[in-house]
Amino acid sequence: MSANYTYCDQCGKPNDPRGKFCHNCGARLGAPPAVTPTASGTPVLSTGSSSSSGCLKGCLITFLIVSCLGLAGITAAGLIYKEKIVTYVETFLDENPSLPRIISSSGGSSGTASANTVTSAVEGTVSAPNGATITVPAGAVPVTDDGSAGTMVFSIEEDHERTVTLDGAFAAVGPVYNLGPEGFVFNAPVLITLPIPDGVDPEQILGLTYYDAQAGSWKLVPGMVDAGAGIVSAETTHFSPWSVFGSCIGDTFGGCGYAESGRQWAAENGGWFKVRNTHSRGGGNYPGGQRKPMSTGYGVCVQSYNFDNPSAAWSWVEPVDWKVWARDGSTTKFWLPAGKYDLLEVIHLSEINMDPLYVPDYKTYWRPIGVHTLAPGQTIDFESISVSDIGDDYTEGRPPCWGEQTTSVGTGDVQITLSWSAYADIDLYVEDPAGDIVYYDNAVVPSGGQLDRDNTCGNFIQDRPENIFWPTGSTPTGSYKISVDYYGDCGSTGAVQWTVRTVIEGRVETYSGTLGAEGDNKQVTSFQIR
Length: 530
Prior knowledge:
Shape: globular
Structural class: mainly beta
Radius of gyration: 26 Å
């Protein structure tokens, strides 16, 4: 077998490897051996069958099949031979290079994620058809390890397999959204906005919830509800599966047994932080850099808390994830449980930049503002100060409540990222069309694929992902296989849940599973690029 062709046993002629049947005589081709990593990390061959070629989806399939049938003079009865038609479609694609390069992939999600590539230099937005959005401010994408501008593919993808479990008076509504990229901490808060499902009273919505893989449970994050627009928003510096939650959901007797409404329940069990940012976007020049027009963010974040109802504490995330935040010229209002909150005030300034070759300058200032007691039904107001009034009581730099930022990794025509949240060494393997395998002991292969991030027991960093990519314009055509391997248990961890996100020619898919113990491995998926 060469790198570019297989040979048909029946007629002995070369055949393009993307087809399952020989183009010359129609005989079925044998499946090539699959590569499986062993516990030692050394790849070995297995004799399992390769995954079936996928058909193109939607209207493109219909158009191509009908066109091919018409050109070939095949009657309707020919539809019985579905596998042969796939080969005809692939031949048609070879003759039409402007069509998408992805021929097929197996397993995982539907590939219908909304995605957008954003760099450290400029702002960016991802919008899904149902109104879910991610808003990325300039400078939020971390730079790379060498300090140059970073690039990330942000994505929104509905997950219809995952369910949310919350206790007490809380319940999730609407779908779960896989937000990517996982495994990174952004340089500044990123805004998540999710739609409130039809038929749900916005007064019952309190915020967003996300899955904490390390804790193995769903955590609650206060959010801003816009009843008129039917949306709820929250700021975060990291991604995972997210959804919308509220109180008294589905209670037909007026809300949680005795309250007349969700609003009454909220007023009896908590209050609101109201944050007003008085700075208009572009209303002044940034004090430094190229003195471009300035964008600002203002808000408070929680260092610690003491709930009036301690039994509710388990439901809420660690304070580092609580960011009551307002962007240029806006006002936000977040519900929180009644209690005492030790707060930091944060002001973030950045240049408004449209030059992709220039990384905008930014500065963040913060100061402690003490403990604030939030009584049931109370609203506490916070208002930004003038930039000129930022004094010596402010500390310049990243506030503790934002967490420790990470750096960006490589991306391109193909990017595969493995993330997990456990004290274990999990390895990522990708086999390219030439049969070369990118993994920790073979970090760069002749086709251009490279592993640029590894996470081992010896230098373990919690939630640090592994990443393999092919730079833009260098990706070879042919078949690829992705595997994950449980190389080492770093501390009596046991079974580990993993997630693999693939970005292939801009198309995003997500895969997940569990590796039981050291030596366990799994082929995640395979895909083809023409």
